[in-house]
Design a protein that fits this description.
The complex is a heterodimer of chains A (189) and B (334).
Chain A: E1 3-5, E2 14-17, E3 20-30, E4 38-45, E5 51-57, E6 61-63, E7 67-77, E8 82-85, E9 92-95, H1 97-100, E10 112-118, E11 121-126, E12 130-138, E13 152-156, E14 161-164, E15 173-177, E16 182-186
Antiparallel strand pairs in A: 1-6, 2-3, 3-4, 4-5, 7-8, 7-10, 8-9, 10-11, 12-13, 12-15, 13-14, 15-16
Chain B: H1 14-33, E1 37-38, E2 44-45, E3 58-60, E4 75-78, H2 83-91, E5 97-104, E6 116-125, H3 129-144, E7 153-157, H4 158-166, H5 175-184, H6 198-213, E8 218-225, E9 234-235, E10 241-249, E11 252-259, H7 264-280, H8 290-299, E12 303-309, H9 310-318
Parallel strand pairs in B: 1-5, 7-8
Antiparallel strand pairs in B: 2-4, 3-4, 5-6, 6-12, 8-10, 9-10, 10-11, 11-12
Helix pairs in contact in B: 1-3, 1-9, 2-8, 4-6, 5-6, 7-8
């Protein structure tokens, strides 16, 4: 079983805590001049997303979490699972609703997502920073209004609703920033 | 990451480098006015600090001047503080002395630690630790004047401070009592800390509960538990406590001082206890400084001494959150 010494702690390192895979956000050496050294770490539980704090006696070994970030192509959803494929090995991975989380509203078939795998199972799905999605429903466009002021809701092909300028029409392809959920521009062909 | 494009540059700003020069000049001026002698003792030593929480770097000397046989290539420690040779000077009749030097501690690197750092250490003959705390305050007020003045000064005993902030008596509490306090503060038991190491649990409370609860400004904590006496003499009482103090500035540990233990026999026993603890925790025993013991045997004058982290002081003066901001080239760029 792989393990890390507390001296190897740094941001991004994946370790096991109470049976769950976690990622170190911050690691701080706490040591009185004449006393015991500790590593105080802020950690994200990769299963629940919760941020917790833990303290280790410096020099201890901690079990490593077999977690890796991979670029996988989204294939399709069968309603229960979202299926991804490794473009190099063609190996497929099925992510459940917990792993997909909020990413679900940006997932378009054939887009490449960053998928965090734990022992080969998807743990977290991160959509691309920018996605191109087609408008399936919105109020009729107001021609000539290109000021960008105001705006209206538009439903996209994945079901996501974003605020768009008044001139956007049904059937147009839009570039969306998935980190903010905001409209960026019309997609150029 | 060796060789990347920008890592030849210092991590400290020009302003921070200038502040270092200013504070060092003011420190020297303060001691010159006070008629305290500046001294210079070796970085390399055949003996080391025995403290089980401090680890020395080691190296080896080759060439003329080395001894014969087993001593032909002697192992040497880089000092973790200049305490032992400075006490030998005191025993030789130097009178009050100070030193500003680089010291080295293996395994210490972080936001307020660098394995090589600047220490100001001084000893005042005829002082006890109360006199020396006043001296520390006067030094800080003098050298920080017009830069980042010290707003307030607070004095606590170790026991009163724990009672005030946790309701727990640190001199009598057992480890399960400490675990209750930790949980009250939302903290988990640390991974790897055994139930026998009472002092480590006290250190945990000190760093995770007490330090964050300290006020701003200068805080002196004195009268440490007997088990944390280090090189301080004991003060009689129920229970007896160590004539040791720590100085905090805006919640950062800045200095550690003692009314110095002068009894050579007791000093030797403490060294041996330290080495036994080192052996038990597999950090390895170190050479005990026989020359210090001989000097104490011949007579260490009644004195108090303190070691102050100059880089930490610069962090305060420069309002820096990281020690890298006040060191030209920290470990990552050394």
């Amino acid at each position: 079983m792989a393990s890390y010494n507390t001296n190897e702690f740094r941001g991004g390192l994946k370790i096991m805590i109470d049976g769950d895979p976690c990622s170190i956000i911050e690691n701080e050496l706490v040591k009185p001049g004449k006393g015991q050294a500790f590593n105080r770490v802020k950690i994200r539980n990769l299963k629940t997303g919760r941020v917790i704090e833990r303290t280790y006696k410096s020099g201890e070994s901690v079990e490593a979490a077999d977690v890796m970030d991979t670029d996988l192509q989204f294939l399709y959803s069968d309603g229960e699972f979202w299926h991804f494929m490794d473009p190099d090995t063609y190996e497929q991975h099925a992510a459940d609703a917990t792993a997909v989380g909020d990413a679900v509203k940006w997932l378009k078939e054939q887009d490449t997502c960053e998928v965090t795998l734990w022992n080969g199972t998807p743990l977290v799905v991160t959509p691309p920073n920018f996605v191109i999605l087609t408008v399936t429903d919105t109020d009729p466009g107001v021609r000539g209004d290109t000021s960008g002021g105001g705006g209206k809701p538009a439903t996209l092909e994945t079901g996501a609703v974003v605020r768009v300028p008044l001139f956007i029409e049904i059937g147009e392809a839009l570039k969306i920033d998935t980190r903010t959920g905001e409209y960026v521009a019309r997609a150029r062909d | 990451m060796p060789g990347t494009s920008a890592d030849w540059q210092p991590t400290a700003s020009r302003g921070a480098l200038k502040l270092r020069a200013t504070l060092l000049a003011r420190i020297r001026e303060y001691f010159s006015v006070q008629d305290v002698l500046e001294v210079d003792t070796p970085v390399l030593s055949r003996a080391a600090a025995t403290d089980s929480a401090i680890n020395s770097f080691t190296t080896t000397y080759h060439g003329p001047g080395a001894g014969a046989g087993n001593d032909s290539a002697p192992g040497l420690y880089l000092h973790t503080s200049p305490e032992f040779p400075m006490k030998r000077l005191l025993a030789a009749g130097s009178g009050s002395i100070y030193q500003v030097c680089k010291v080295f501690r293996d395994g210490e690197c972080g936001a307020s630690h660098n394995p090589e750092f600047t220490l100001l250490e001084w000893y005042r003959t005829g002082f006890d630790h109360f006199d020396l705390m006043d001296d520390v305050e006067q030094l800080l007020r003098t050298i920080l004047e017009g830069i980042t003045p010290v707003a307030s000064v607070d004095h606590w005993t170790y026991r009163e401070l724990f009672l005030e902030l946790t309701g727990m008596d640190p001199l009598t509490a057992a480890v399960p009592d400490m675990q209750v306090v930790l949980r009250e503060h939302g903290l988990h038991d640390p991974v790897g800390l055994g139930p026998d190491d009472r002092d480590a649990w006290l250190d945990l409370l000190m760093t995770h509960v007490i330090e964050p609860g300290l006020g701003q400004g200068l805080v002196f904590i004195r009268d440490y538990p007997a088990s944390q006496a280090a090189l301080a003499r004991m003060r009689p009482g129920q229970p007896a406590v160590a004539a040791r103090f720590e100085v905090y500035l805006d919640r950062i540990e800045l200095a550690n001082g003692y009314h110095e233990l002068a009894d050579a026999k007791e000093q030797q026993q403490r060294f041996e206890q330290d080495n036994a603890r080192r052996d038990a925790q597999a950090t390895g025993t170190v050479e005990i400084d026989q020359r210090l013991l001989a000097a104490m045997q011949s007579g260490l004058p009644d004195c108090a001494g303190v070691a102050l982290g100059v880089d930490r002081l610069l962090m305060y003066a420069n309002r820096s959150a990281s020690i890298d901001e006040v060191i030209a080239f920290p470990l990552s760029r050394a």
